[in-house]
């Protein structure tokens, strides 16, 4: 598939692939104890995640490979990086400190001063974990309907409400919270929250798999928010911040999430080949069929990410590739368990972990049902299959 | 309760004639002036192109089939399989687009059926299968196995699409007749010679 990628992307991919070697043991450790990431911060993959989407001018040693310097500001390069790290271990990748989705939101909405403060903190010597607080207990990820409130309070605001299914929130120092300042879609804001502030509480939610994501529930009880912590408040019109920022961040990040699912899928298919090199007949053809679907989905994901880099954010295609990737990860792990024989999940702890991890992608950044509605809109408008 | 039944823009006979012409174009691409014969000796083309064949049941007199001893060479078969799958994709896409138009016109309980989430999900499922088939067919180094898998996925998506038409999808006048021909052609040209070897597929 290299022939379809530009040279700088191929060099980046090969570099990250090297850094992802050996992450499986680390991933198994994190699956047993999600706080184990604290003991693994010396690994090269952690440095990659810490610098991902932080502009190079903030980094003391930005990633350089050959003649190129990278900050993963490109959706394609970000996607490739995450796919390769997820081939190593998706749970490990998600447990790492760094900007992840919050960085995309700050990059899209923050003013110069906000971005500067955010990137300075992320590039500092101490590892900083972040979160992206959108999903709510009663409303899911429907950004236009969220109920967390931002209420004027003296010369600032107070933040009240609850968020659920937020990665890393219980371990983070900093995050973006989407909230409602006024009724209607223009009343949505995104605010930067320091988790040390009074009124902020977060607890991990135990999950079946992908424990490195450290999915959490947040309670916001009168958290003080200064005006300068509202992203883009002084520089963007209400119609260009808040809700728009949530949607832009989700769409920019969906190929990255698809890359996570596809990295895991590739690891699973390679694992089956390594464990059953003599697989033949119908079983071999079944594996070949899944490999075809994986190759096709990867190619399509790169095309969608490249289109985003070119300024073409097509909601229907973004939704389609996320759906395909998430479903393929589940299909591949189900097939792997069958192809490796009875009790494979008990005999093969790594497969068992991948099998559990793969179930997460359906629920991350919009379920398959929600994505299908976006695909449908594309069919109705005649754009999806064009 | 359904209160409106939409009319197709062209007749079923027109659609079948257009399909037969498109099938002949697939033959022409692989064997100029002739017909492609499957590994098991079967050929299916329009009645005009395959004058001495027997009418294909359910082809409404537009397609004919013939059995003979000699299969086409691998190069011709490979080119024909690709052309056939493209025809299958185009046909299914037309069926899907027509279903969307039809369901937007049909009402149930005072609202278009197209507004139902279950319907929208089924439309999306078919579209996702079409996109996936397109991407898999673009992969390098095509094989007969891959072509058969794509055919199978398109058949499954086609059955989903037909459910959007209700009982109309089962009539000879409806889109079911066309999709049946794509299934028949896949059964003739794309199925593996040893069905036992396929046992255990997803």
UniProtKB/TrEMBL annotation, chain A:
Cofactors, names only: FAD
PANTHER family with a match to the protein in the record: ACYL-COA DEHYDROGENASE, ISOVALERYL-COA DEHYDROGENASE, MITOCHONDRIAL-RELATED
All copies of domain Acyl-CoA dehydrogenase/oxidase C-terminal, residue ranges: 241-377
Pfam families in the cross-refs: Acyl-CoA_dh_1 (PF00441), Acyl-CoA_dh_M (PF02770)
InterPro entries given in the database record: Acyl-CoA_Oxase/DH_mid-dom, Acyl-CoA_Oxase/DH_mid-dom_sf, AcylCo_DH-like_C, AcylCo_DH/oxidase_C, AcylCoA_DH/oxidase_NM_dom_sf
Protein name: Alkylation response protein AidB-like acyl-CoA dehydrogenase
The Acyl-CoA oxidase/dehydrogenase middle domain, residue ranges: 132-223
An MF annotation (GO) of this entry: acyl-CoA dehydrogenase activity
CDD domains: ACAD (cd00567)
Keyword match Phosphoprotein: no
Native source species: Streptomyces eurocidicus
Family stated for the protein in its record: Belongs to the acyl-CoA dehydrogenase family.
Keyword vocabulary terms for this entry: FAD, Flavoprotein, Oxidoreductase
UniProtKB/TrEMBL annotation, chain B:
MF terms in GO: oxidoreductase activity, acting on the CH-CH group of donors
Name the UniProt record assigns to this protein: Acyl-CoA dehydrogenase/oxidase C-terminal domain-containing protein
Naturally occurring in which organism (per UniProt): Streptomyces eurocidicus
């Amino acid at each position: 598939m290299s022939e379809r990628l530009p040279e700088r992307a191929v060099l980046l991919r090969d570099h990250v692939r090297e850094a992802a070697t050996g992450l499986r043991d680390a991933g198994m450790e994190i699956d047993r104890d999600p706080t184990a990431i604290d003991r693994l911060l010396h690994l090269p993959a952690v440095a990659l995640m810490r610098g991902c989407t932080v502009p190079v001018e903030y980094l003391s040693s930005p990633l350089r490979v050959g003649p190129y310097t990278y900050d993963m500001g490109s959706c394609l390069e970000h996607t490739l990086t995450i796919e390769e790290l997820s081939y190593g271990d998706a749970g490990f990748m998600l447990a790492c400190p760094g900007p992840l989705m919050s960085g995309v939101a700050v990059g899209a909405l923050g003013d110069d001063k906000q971005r500067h403060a955010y990137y300075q903190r992320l590039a500092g010597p101490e590892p900083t974990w972040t979160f992206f607080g959108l999903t709510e207990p009663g409303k899911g990820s429907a950004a236009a309907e969220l109920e967390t409130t931002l209420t004027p309070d003296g010369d600032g605001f107070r933040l009240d409400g609850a968020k659920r299914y937020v990665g890393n929130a219980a371990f983070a120092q900093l995050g973006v919270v989407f909230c409602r300042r006024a009724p209607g879609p223009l009343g949505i804001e995104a605010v930067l929250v320091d988790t040390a502030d009074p009124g902020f509480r977060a607890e991990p939610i135990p999950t079946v798999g992908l424990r490195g994501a450290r999915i959490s529930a947040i309670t916001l009880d009168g958290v003080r928010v200064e005006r300068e912590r509202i992203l883009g408040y002084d520089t963007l019109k209400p119609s260009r911040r808040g809700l728009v920022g949530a949607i832009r961040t989700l769409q920019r990040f969906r190929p990255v999430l698809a890359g996570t699912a596809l990295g895991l899928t590739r690891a699973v298919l390679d694992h089956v080949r390594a464990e059953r090199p003599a697989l033949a007949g119908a079983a071999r053809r079944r594996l070949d069929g899944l490999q075809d679907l994986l190759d096709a989905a990867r190619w399509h994901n790169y095309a969608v990410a490249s289109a985003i880099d070119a300024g073409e954010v097509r909601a229907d295609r973004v939704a389609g590739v996320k759906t395909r990737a998430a479903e393929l990860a589940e299909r591949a792990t189900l097939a792997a368990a069958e192809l490796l024989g009875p009790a494979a999940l008990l005999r093969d702890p790594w497969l068992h972990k991948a099998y559990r991890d793969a179930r997460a992608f359906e629920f991350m950044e919009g379920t398959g049902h929600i994505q299908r509605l976006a695909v449908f809109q594309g069919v109705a408008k005649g754009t999806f299959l064009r | 309760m359904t209160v409106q039944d939409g009319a197709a823009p062209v007749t079923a006979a027109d659609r079948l004639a257009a399909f037969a012409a498109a099938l002949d174009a697939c033959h022409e691409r692989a064997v100029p002036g002739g017909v492609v014969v499957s590994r098991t000796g079967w050929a299916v083309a329009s009645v005009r192109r395959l004058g001495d064949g027997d009418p294909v049941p359910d082809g409404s007199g537009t397609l004919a089939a013939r059995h003979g001893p000699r299969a086409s060479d691998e190069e011709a078969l490979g080119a024909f399989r690709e052309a056939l799958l493209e025809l299958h994709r185009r046909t299914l896409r037309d069926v899907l687009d027509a279903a969307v138009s039809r369901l937007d016109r049909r009402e149930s309980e005072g609202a278009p059926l197209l507004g139902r989430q279950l319907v929208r999900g089924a439309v999306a499922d078919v579209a996702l299968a079409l996109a996936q088939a397109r991407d898999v067919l673009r992969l390098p180094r095509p094989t007969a196995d891959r072509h058969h898998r794509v055919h199978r996925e398109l058949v499954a998506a086609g059955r989903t699409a037909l459910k959007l038409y209700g009982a109309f999808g089962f009539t000879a006048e409806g889109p079911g007749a066309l999709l049946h021909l794509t299934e028949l052609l896949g059964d003739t040209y794309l199925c593996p010679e040893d069905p036992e070897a396929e046992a255990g597929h997803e």
